[in-house]
Specification:
With 122 residues, the chain is an alpha+beta fold. Helices cover 16% and strands 11% of the residues. A hairpin with a 2-residue loop joins strand 1 and strand 2. The longest helix is centred in the last third of the chain and has 10 residues. The two termini are 15 Å apart.
């Protein structure tokens, strides 16, 4: 899958938010692929004691994007990172969205690693 164009955007979110809306996050063409990761502010700003690639879940319980009236994905992600470990759909989306599902190719992120700091949302 060739990369046509990449663009990195960052948004600061306050802790304790129950809901967030980012109007006009994309102006013009909607991206074909969106990868989202959440890190602490200190890690993002380069504090040497924090890993900027330690993506945390921050107890996220619902995630979807709206493009007009269209919801992406059509069934929102609703992970549970508590003791039930109900986040398999989110984990499997990494494989399907990267074209690795049902193929002999790995993404080198285990199920437990996904929960504990290598979580990206596709």
């Amino acid at each position: 899958m060739p990369l046509r164009r990449t663009e990195v955007k960052s948004f600061a979110l306050s802790s304790g938010m129950q809901s967030i809306t980012i109007p006009n996050a994309f102006i013009g063409q909607v991206p074909a692929r969106l990868i989202m990761g959440m890190v602490s502010n200190t890690a993002y700003n380069g504090d040497f004691s924090n890993n900027p690639f330690n993506f945390k879940h921050y107890d996220l319980s619902y995630l979807c994007l709206l493009d007009g009236n269209r919801m992406i994905p059509s069934k929102p992600y609703q992970p549970k990172f508590d003791t039930s470990n109900s986040y398999s759909r989110c984990y499997m989306s990494l494989f399907t969205d990267l074209g690795r599902y049902h193929k002999d190719q790995d993404i080198n992120i285990s199920y437990s690693e996904y929960k504990d700091g290598t979580r990206c949302w596709q």
